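Input structure tokens:
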């Protein structure tokens, strides 16, 4: 992100020098003083989707940006976040813990981002709708979520491309009962990964990742500009490409195994092993927008995550044990009724 994230020049209204913040609904910088909206689009926006090649043999070329920025450190989860423009907060957007101004933060340059496309009011609406649609929700939960603290965050992600020349070996089951037999197989295949979206921070939990994962479209990327972050928090990229690839290796292995299962096209595939020759690695360092709502239910902290792109919602929520018992009794009653009806039909 370099020094641009802390630059205030882009955040001042050119008409009245007032403080501006990014408006997701108006798609531009909105001046709090005169109300003008300033477009951030440029004729170079299409370049935001460009990727950078990576050669593991030349990993020393991937160096952090030495220009330093003051970050806010969370004493609860250890996250370091930056607040741009009027977004200054005393709470961590990740965990709602207290943050304090820390020492200067060095990270890698952000290449692109997808701006917020929904505002906090719509995110609150989505969270309440999500809660209402959950089964066995406590009666008071919607009201509690309606009062939840909401934080807009640009979370760091990678996109990775690669070509994989795979040699695999595995076992699968044929037959059934006493005729079950184990067979071995091996083969070769090529796997292409394109825009594999991966978290670039340990603070991007599975809940946050799932809240944004299905929304990514490279054509929506815009070149990094401080104006897009005005009014929001952001976490810088702190991983080198090598570290990012290693941190996401477990997810990549799972995807590889699933592709191998599809290639074998047999039921009961197990004990998959493989080796791969990886080439053609390309990457992007990007920021993606999420709204995170923090609330407590009977002393237990929970969160609801809303994609800042299209409002897709995931979350944590408690259950009403009384409603769970009622649903269990209802299902048991239906099962007993069906059993009696089946039995009565067999006697006819």
């Amino acid at each position: 992100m370099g020094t641009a994230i802390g630059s205030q020049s882009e955040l001042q209204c050119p008409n009245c020098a007032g403080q501006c913040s990014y408006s997701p609904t108006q798609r531009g910088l909105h001046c709090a003083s005169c109300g003008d909206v300033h477009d951030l689009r440029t004729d170079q926006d299409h370049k935001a989707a460009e990727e950078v090649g990576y050669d593991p043999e030349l990993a020393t070329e991937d160096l952090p940006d030495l220009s330093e920025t003051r970050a806010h450190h969370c004493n609860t989860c250890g996250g370091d976040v930056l607040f741009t423009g009027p977004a200054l907060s005393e709470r961590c957007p990740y965990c709602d813990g207290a943050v304090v101004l820390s020492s200067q933060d060095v990270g890698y340059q952000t290449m692109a981002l997808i701006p917020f496309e929904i505002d906090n009011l719509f995110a609150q609406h989505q969270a309440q709708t999500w809660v209402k649609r959950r089964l066995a929700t406590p009666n008071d939960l919607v009201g509690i979520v309606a009062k939840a603290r909401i934080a807009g965050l640009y979370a760091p992600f990678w996109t990775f491309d690669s070509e994989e020349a795979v040699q695999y070996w595995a076992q699968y089951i044929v037959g059934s009962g006493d005729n079950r037999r184990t067979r071995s197989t091996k083969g070769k295949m090529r796997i292409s990964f394109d825009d594999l979206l991966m978290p670039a921070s340990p603070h991007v939990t599975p809940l946050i990742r799932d809240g944004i994962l299905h929304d990514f479209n490279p054509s929506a990327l815009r070149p990094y500009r401080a104006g897009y972050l005005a009014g929001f928090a952001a976490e810088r990229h702190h991983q080198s490409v090598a570290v990012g690839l290693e941190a996401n290796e477990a997810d990549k292995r799972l995807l590889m195994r699933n592709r191998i299962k599809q290639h074998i096209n047999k039921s009961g595939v197990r004990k998959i092993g493989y080796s791969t020759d990886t080439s053609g690695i390309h990457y992007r360092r990007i920021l993606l927008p999420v709204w995170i709502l923090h609330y407590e239910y009977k002393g237990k902290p929970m969160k609801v995550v809303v994609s800042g792109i299209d409002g897709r919602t995931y979350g944590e929520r408690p259950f009403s044990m009384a409603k769970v018992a009622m649903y269990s009794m209802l299902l048991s009653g239906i099962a007993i009724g069906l059993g009696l009806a089946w039995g009565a039909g067999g006697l006819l």
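The chain is about 25% helix and 35% strand. Residues 2-156+196-236+288-334 form one domain.
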